[in-house]
Amino acid sequence: MNKEQKAFHKSRRKEFSKLIGNDSIAIIFGSTHHNKSFDGDHNFKQYKNFYYLTGFTEANSALVLMPSGSRGVPLQKGKRITEVLYVQKKDPLMETWNGKRLGCKNVKDELGIEEGKENSELESLLNGKILSAYRYLYINFSELIKLNGEMKHITSGFLDKLNVIAPNVEIIDASYLLGRMRAVKTKYEIKVLKQSADITVRSCNETLTMIKPGLNEHQVQANLEYHYKYNGAQETAYYPIVAGGDNACILHYDKNDQVLKNGELLLIDSGAEYNYYCTDITRTFPINGKFTEEQKLIYEIVLKANKECIRKIKPGIKFSELTVLSERILADGLYKAGILKNKKDIKTYSLHGLGHHIGLDTHDAVDYRRKLKEDNDVLREGNVLTIEPGLYFPKGSKGIDRKFWGTGVRIEDDVLVIKNGYENLTNAMVKEVSSIEFIMNVG
Length: 443
Ligand SMILES: [Mn+2]
Fold this sequence. Notes:
It is built from 16 helices and 19 strands. By secondary structure, it is α+β, with helices and mostly antiparallel strands.
């Protein structure tokens, strides 16, 4: 791991330790292998909260943070330790089959974490008296309950026994504090997010030139995924939505198995994941390279909402205000065009929220609607959000002229909040009607 990345994860541990305070101990579990079918597993992916604090991508690990130092004998060794990473045991046979393991001895040099231990030693921490020396125990609950294999064994019964071993300890879910931290991206994160966005934009622009009637949705998906990997991404941030015609009105359409028809639109909602950071772009294209008048009309209304909301972004603006603005633009546009009789019905056709935070997760672990001491609705410098207005008129839409049926349009960008405004990370992805038609027709 390079110096810059090491410093980033270290700064995150430091910040998190400061937030939980001296009376606390935190145990953040990494992910384990998850079975797909019979003896085949899903490709291993580290939990993002654990990654955020460590940058470590091996399975069966856990990070322990003790801001005021370890208070129990097994961890002490005569020195004050504030962070321990529990990792898989070195095992030549297993490494021959499944790849190299870092081993606890290399934790400090490779990751910059104070101490490394074998994960089997975690059991004595979880079941011993050490925990009772603290007032608060922070754990990532929702991830703990999904652990498999050796980590399931190591952690089994630990929560049940806590009440006996350490009845004084208050257990707190670490996810909220980590989500709050993850809402504001550091310089390092912004750099990686931009790389992820660039890969996605370059790939989408490439794929755009191959779209034509008669292709199957999965062929477009294959082309997109090829470019992601070819351009350096490890995987897709989420399963791509490649939805022709009426399929675009199914928000999380994932079949991607229909033939693209002449005269219909194709909605692509997809993003690459690069070094653990996600991109999420949606664009809507005319399959034959030319928008019909009806499609253009809907498209321009959505585009206006997308652009005007993005233009408003700066620190201090409320996301809820942008949501209201977007709905007003969509409702006004449809009303003026005579498509919508009553502006109040807009939600029937706009369907979803305006956007979400993005970062390590596509829907980043940040709940901006939650109100605690701070108002998470207010945008801050370093936030990265999607802006993704959409309009959907599925076949059979009552009260809507038939010529608009089967039209689904969404236009989504990823936007960074900077000191005096915003930076659109996905700006280089075409979205004007004229530029889309131009590129689709010159190839
Ligand atoms: Mn999105």
